[in-house]
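User: For this week's homework, look closely at the record that follows, marking any run of repeated tokens, and judge whether sequence predicts the tokens.
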Amino acid sequence: MKDFYRDIMDMPHPVSPGRPHMPLSVRAAQFAPFAALSGYGEAVEEEARLTREKAELTEEEKEKLDWQLRILAQKKGPGKIRVTYFVPDAHKSGGAYVSASGFVKKIDYMRKKIFLSDGTEIPAENIQMIQEADECLP
């Protein structure tokens, strides 16, 4: 079996006269892995991503938030606040709670939104908690 390829071992590598030599970087692409199930990895990641359900506030908590909003609306120059609110997920049920800090620019009672000075719009029905800057943790 040792001598099976002896007759071709010392022959020069064949070179095509009609085609240029392929660079190694291009040649390596033909050995790249094939994704038979394109999009499957993204689907698995999306399914594994966790969301939370929106917590319902008690009547007492709703009254406290309403009182805080009225106080903020009456102030001439409201101080810095931190608002924790629910953001619904665009792709699956549930969502996430996020916090935004800033100065209140406007409270729109018709559209039921709070506008912060940085442009953040917060729907009033999604607010979980409002803290003034001196109550906020760093």
